[in-house]
Amino acid sequence: MGTLYIVATPIGNLQDISLRAIDTLCLVDFILCEDTRKTSVLIKHIQKQFPNVKIKARLISFYEENEMQRLPEILQMLNKDFNFALVSDAGTPTISDPGFKLVRDSMLLGIKIVSIPGASSVISALVSSGLPTDKFMFLGFLPKKSGHRKDLLENVKKTLQIVKQTVIFFESPFRLVETLKELTDIFGDIDVVTARELTKLYEEVRKEKLSESIKHYEKTNPKGEFVVLFNPEI
Q1: CATH number for 148
Q2: Residue 73's pLDDT is what?
Q3: What gap in Å lies between CA 141 and CA 149, rounded to an integer?
Q4: Do 145 and 187 belong together in one domain?
Q5: Which of 87, 119, 151 is the last residue of a domain?
């Protein structure tokens, strides 16, 4: 029986790939990729930095729309002693990315799962935020519909009355200002941290009042995926 490796990849700076991740990519027979083109860029970078490294695994596209279709074949091959690495476009696989069903079903079949830890935008943003790090709640991407977002945030507010913690979520640049305004409606003009382009050349982590953040992003053209953090107690 083969092994399924969950391999974290860089969230921006390609130098953040770990030595253990490189060893694993050399070991496996197949690499399941959210986007084979982006994984190919990473592999080329690794082999340029380390000329003796040879990654010969076949790249297989594995994303949300084809996950269920691919699943039976992958599980069958894992049962036949083939080793797989699961990677996402950036960061740790299955965190707001496909793969959890593969991990779940592999575990049910007794297939060995090995996590190769590495970069995570959630943790990178948290430790750079200046907000408490001892307890946090991660919401992933908020719902696209405003009404559903407000319902979720109202429930978060109730939860924070029971357990004080930092809240973290992902947001699209196209909905950022609207979401920040909804946060203001529910929590008031509290401090908020917005992080983007983490580990890249133009990394930006801003900590300011919601009103200031809204004013800033209304004047600019937000780009890139945002990590948003807040803690009403701070």
Answers
A1: 3.30.950.10
A2: 96
A3: 10
A4: yes
A5: 119
